[in-house]
Please model this.
Amino acid sequence: MLTRTAAISSSVFAPTHEVRNQALPASGFNAFTGDAVLTAAIARDAPWAAQRCAALGALAGDEAVQELARLANRHTPELQSHDRFGNRVDWVEFHPAWHQLMALAWQHEVPNLSWRTTERNGHLARAVLSYLWNQVEQGTACPTGMAYASLPGFEAEPALAIWAEKARGTAYEFSRREVADKPSVVIGYAMTEKQGGSDLRETQTTACFVQSADYHGATAHWYALTGHKWFCSVPQSDGFFTLAKVEGGVTCFFLPRTLPDGSRNHFWVQRLKDKAGNRSNASSEVEYNGTLAIRVGEEGRGIREILSHAHLTRLDFAVGSAGLMRQSLTLALRHTQTRNAFGSRIAERPMMVQVLADMAVEVEAATLMALRVARATDGMQDNEQERLLARVATPAAKYFNCSRAPSIAYEALQCHGGNGFIEENPMARLYREAPLNSVWEGTANMMCMDVRRAMQRDGRCVEALFAELAPLAGQDSRFDALVRQTQQLVQGALQDEYLARPMTESVARVLQAAELLRYSPEEVSDAFLVTRSGVAGQGWGVHYGTWQNAGSQPAAQRIVQRAAVQQA
Model:
């Protein structure tokens, strides 16, 4: 006979409900071969890179790699200031998942494909790799981007030739060995100080000449640095580009963590930043005290030198934010297409169809603009039109893509409902990550100032911008109106900084419109021009999914279908 105690005990372990109607995870896909925009871009401009892109695209949809991303952000870096005997070590410990991700990024040439290949459009091909990697894990995208930007600095200074060689390496190694002994290197940047922020002219760190000496077969000019840096990402890097004043002139230096004799340079990590996002990546505050560094370029010309790197970091942020937007869209599509509500798939509800289509249009426009800037970067050395266009298009794309990423992440989270706000869901990580690129390497206002400054200093930049658009004149009256509006805003902003932001936004939107007219289906470009041309009477509200006259529901469904990453 069953006792009362036994009955109660058995009921405790009885199931209370059936788990059903949960969305499927976004895995088992290839983020390259399943992406119509990316595959078409590579087929047009860099078919030689398709196999590389496909190999990396498979990682974005690999469940095991997605788990590495989760672990790297769950178990954040820890500063080791001293060893157990009290000696300063100034090192950072990471979860093994971080190192596995870094090894994958280096293996797949994310930091350096453009510098390793002799094929055409290497920067564009590398941009696609970065776009894909930003759908794998964004914290590690910081060191890949800085490594990418470092090559011009290394190649401009003969004493750093060995670093240029190692920066092309594909075998990641986490160690403090001297550069000659490593298969590859990780590079950091330490520029910003407490009092100046992004105004690098306010640098207080000082440098005093020590000696000129042989360094791996070339003469290096060594200085001792004293001062601090308020933001230094990836403080475990093998070396850093940094700024210091020599007799009042801001000068560029390169600081190796390990000196030629194997001893550790004086590089004091004060603390790690407790960031809202980008949790897997270490960012820090550091101090220099007799820290040895090699001068890069001439004394007093450090800002000009470092700006030669900034073009590449800004391009990488424009690409990276587009990649984050693409991942957000992929997660939103997967969730809504595999979960039911009110009698149908969420993705089939009429309002949701418009939301997803609207997001897809925004992501495609951001992607094509970023890739156009990458293509211009490929032409900078030999083509004056491309060089001048890149001078304005790069900061415009960085400003606009990085500013739009949070809106896409927010709307993608809305598509998930409360599930998207839980840390177990990758959507929560993307939501916290989305604003970051807009404040790294220059805030939104700084990018708009840079666009305006480029136009003021060289009027040919304005000519190059509109020469880029001229072949499309007459194809669409809304595009023509957007070009005229942009021309008016450019002229106004050249006279008054107050108009710099609306001018830069218009520049970005007209570049996006041009790329959509060239390469996207008519229903995509039509939806864009109806809702985003800035022309009076446009049919768009404030939020995504508020089209008023931008095409029919069947057209929106075709846009969504185009955006969906095809499952492997």
Summary: The first strand starts at residue 78 and ends at 82. The longest helix spans residues 302-337. The chain has a mean pLDDT of 94.
